[in-house]
Amino acid sequence: WTLDWKQQGIEEGRREGLQQGLQQGLQQGLQQGQITTAREDVLLALEIRFGAPPVALRETINRVSDLTRLRALHRQAILATSLEEFAAGLSEADLRPEEAGD
After folding, report:
1. How high is the mean pLDDT of the chain?
2. pLDDT computed for residue 13 by the predictor
3. Which of 40, 45, 53, 47 is nearest to 87 (CA)?
4. Cα 20 → chain centroid
5. Are 48 and 78 in contact (CB under 8 A)?
6. Which of 1, 78, 84, 91 has its CA 20 to 30 A from that of 17?
7. Is 9 left (phi over 0), alpha (psi -120 to 50) or beta?
8. Cβ neighbours, 10 Å, residue 100
9. Per-position DSSP letters for 36-75, written without gaps between them
10. Is the dihedral of CA 49, 66, 37, 62 positive or negative?
11. What is d(CA 60, CA 77) in angstroms, rounded to the nearest whole number?
């Protein structure tokens, strides 16, 4: 019976590991979806206000992976009086290439 008990424990551990992996994957997917949507919101606000933003600016915004920062950029895109003013408000961190793994 110890073999059955051991096998049952292994199966239970696999199920728990699978469930945990699925939950983490779902959470990461949801977070990535929020980041993608926030980037799109910033770009759309700029496009509505000032016309299509330059490619370099689009690339810069698409490198930002912090949701809080993207929300601040969205607000900045709405309140800026020009595309130049918006671009001037980008921080050094926004201008750096995204780190591998982000």
Report:
1. 88
2. 85
3. 53
4. 21
5. no
6. 1
7. alpha
8. 5
9. HHHHHHHHHHHHHHHSSPPHHHHHHHHH---HHHHHHHHH
10. positive
11. 14
Q: Are 93 and 65 in contact (CB under 8 A)?
A: no
Rg (CA), the chain: 22
Query: Which region, left, alpha or beta, applies to residue 41 given φ > 0 means left and ψ of -120 to 50 means alpha?
Result: alpha
Q: What b/e string do you get for 13-38 counting C-beta neighbours within 10 Å, with b at 16 or more?
A: eeeeeeeeeeeeeeeeeeeeeebeeb
pTM across the whole model: 0.73
* Residue 97 pLDDT class (50, 70, 90 cuts): low
Tokens of 95: 């201008």
Question: Which tokens sit at 37?
Answer: 């949507």
Residue 88 CB neighbours (<10 A)? 9
**pLDDT above 90 (res 77):** yes
Long-range Cβ contact pairs of 55-62 (< 8 A, separation 24 or more): 57/83, 57/87, 60/90, 60/94, 60/95, 61/94
